[in-house]
Structures are given as C-alpha cells and as structure tokens.
Amino acid sequence: FGLIGSIVAMGEGVGPAIGGMIAHYIHWSYLLLIPMITIITVPFLMKLLKKEVRIKGHFDIKGIILMSVGIVFFMLFTTSYSISFLIVSVLSFLIFVKHIRKVTDPFVDPGLGKNIPFMIGFLCGGII
C-alpha cells in the first residue's frame, strides 16, 4: 500500500486542481483528451511488462452475483432506510462468505481477511 497508496492519494489531490486549471484557462472539452494519453502509452507500457503465466481456473459467477447483490442492497438501504434492503444485504454477504470458503476458485480470496496489512489499508481507504 505504500507506493500505490501514495500515488492514488496524490492523484486524488492533484487531479481536480489540474482539471480545474484546464477547464478555467483552456476549455473543459480538452479534459476529454487526457484519456488519449493513456491510450497512446499503453502499447509502449505493454512492452515493459513481463509475460504472466496464465493459471487455469473457473470464473466465480455466483460469488460475483452474491457480492453485487449485497453491495447494491446496502446502498439502497443507506438511501431509503428500508430494513428489508438491509436484511437482503446482510443475508447476501453471509451467503457470499460461506460461498467463497467452499469454492475452489473464489471471486475474493478468503485469506485476505487474515492479512493484517491488507485489512488496515482496506479500512483506511474505506474511511477516507
């Protein structure tokens, strides 16, 4: 979380300021050209990356659906305060946790919950 977290924090702080300067001094439509820099540099950056070894595995559709339902219904609960949305969200997350412990290729590795530095970074990112 050190280098990546610092770069993300810097981008979140500096990005709006640069965007504001471009919109104020040039024109807001030039902001749409910024992603073009990424598109142009991707082929060059791909040459720098090492080839990854592909690991065969199954795509955990059920895990993705359970987690998505949990997130969506929790967001609905936070805006409408309907207890039924909270119940569906909690049940979905509980079934999701049970599911990822059973499946061979889970959508989220259950071992991440035991990784203390990851959890601290995750909680700090959630608080910010």
UniProtKB/TrEMBL annotation:
It comes from the Bacteria. InterPro entries: MFS_trans_sf. Keywords: Membrane, Transmembrane, Transmembrane helix. The gene is tetL. This is TetL. The chain crosses the membrane at residues 28-49. The keyword Transmembrane applies. It comes from Pediococcus pentosaceus. SUPFAM superfamilies: MFS general substrate transporter.
